[in-house]
Amino acid sequence: MGFDMGVVPSNPDGWGPPDVAAIPQSLGGGASIPFAPFSRSDRLGRIADWTRNPAGPGAFAAASRDSVFDFTSADDSFVAGAEDSSFRLVDAKPPPRQPRFGPKWRFNQRPQLPQRQDEEVEARRRLAEKERARRDRHFQNNRSHHHPGFRGNQSSSSAKPSVDIQPDWTMREQIPFANFTKLSFSVTDQPEDLLSCGAVEFYDRAYDRVNPKAARRLERFKNRNFFKVTTTDDPVIRRLAEEDKATVFATDAILAALMCTPRSIQSWDIVVQRVGNKLFFDKRDGSQLDLLTVNETAQEQLPENKEDINSAHSLAVEATYINQNFSQQVLHREGEKVTFDEPNPFASEGEEAAPVGYRYRRWKLDDEISLVARCEVHAVNADPSGGRQFLTLNALNEFDPKITGVDWRQKLETQRGAVLATELKNNANKLARWTAQALLSGADMMKLGYVSRVHSRDHYNHSILTVMGYKPRDFAAQINLNTANMWGIVKSIVDICMKFEEGKYVFVKDPAKPQVRIYEVPSDAFENDYVEEPLPEEEQVRPLADVDATAQEMDAAAEAEANGASAANGAEATAA
Questions:
Q1: Alpha-carbon distance 423 to 312, whole Å?
Q2: In sequence order, what are the beta bridge partners of 453?
Q3: What is the DSSP string of 437-484?
Q4: Whole-model pTM?
Q5: Which PANTHER family match (predicted)?
């Protein structure tokens, strides 16, 4: 069979193919197949595409593009061609814009592959997590000094109480801080001044003009003695108790510690003695209350190694000495003194005592209970109206700007508010105690000095950068210290102790939880001949999580011992 050249039609009317070309039988000759004209500018579509989704957003455009090669029916093709010739686009409205979220990609408007879309979603998720973490840190920093026990999760599990719990102590009460924050009690009557002792010197106003550029070197006063006498060792309080002037006796430092209990983080303790119908609030010799805390309420914990100059104990000792030296340097030491009714009750003859005024004041809590407290004032200032103003003097200390995050030498002149806000966040309890002591003593003004190390690694030499003055009531409102809540805490503790029998008790702030425990202790506790024996760890009150962990460790140890014993018996039997 030879090669078939096919039928070549001839056009008798002219050049080119005839109007109706003859189609070979092999190609379906005799069928009516129309010719669809097209131009070179038209885009050629696909002849057959089974992967397209006709319901997609580009279905209309694909259908119009491929309609030229749609040979479904001749009649339909002619009708479609007529409709296409008469169709005009009249809707010129732009397509709706898609909302944009997340990062602006370089090819955001172009069709993206599924892999590119997954990367964009993952990037958005990571950015959202970073933003949420940043908001959480900001929220924690802002709320830290308003909520008690906020650093409970960060407290070290190895933190020890300020006093060793003895085996013969009995726990009588356990009070969470949440109960203290709800208390409120107002002392209606003004306090009555029963007696004033000691002498105070005038404040040197030249220190109000000190600034970081003209700082003053902090001097040392080794010849002047400072007294931290507890309540029952005070001869004046003993005399007032014998005269039955009140039923409750304390010092301003002890009352301030009780009033600011919800803000405390570190452990402390107070001894309470019930003698007849009277209560005496005391502190132990070498108590934690004698030292000033540093960065107690900060988020970052200080190192526990006492040999480190930036440890909590080293900074507390340093802050205490700074506070004492500052309170003497800002006075007119060779000038006039203001003496009170009686001399300093704690200084002996020939001894140079630091000038401090002791005011024994009495508050009436109810018809049966009245409180007497020994309060301190550190200086006096001449009032422009001709009177006198009593002052309290305290110093904040900067040890390392890299830890606190604020450099006082750069910020004190331009951003004093930021420096004070940082101190309120890191030392909320200390500032609240100073404010409470100023309110108790009836001081007209409290002076806060900002003292910094000459070098961050030198804890012996310091400089006074500036001194600021505040009215106690205004400053209490600024740091959110409610006087009604302060007196409510004292009144509730007094009522609890009045229900106890005669004896000695101790308040202990839990080192890891926001709560206070009250223990009944022997009458000779904390005396010179009292031998302290720490309570065994298995008998101390601990959180349930610690108890469960210890139980699991004991079970594991017992199982290991049993396995070892069985192995030893097997070895002996084998040897036999």
A1: 16
A2: 462
A3: HHHHHT-SEEEEEEEEEEETTEEEEEEEEEEEEE-HHHHHHHTT--HH
A4: 0.67
A5: EUKARYOTIC TRANSLATION INITIATION FACTOR 3 SUBUNIT 7 (PTHR12399), EUKARYOTIC TRANSLATION INITIATION FACTOR 3 SUBUNIT D (PTHR12399:SF3)
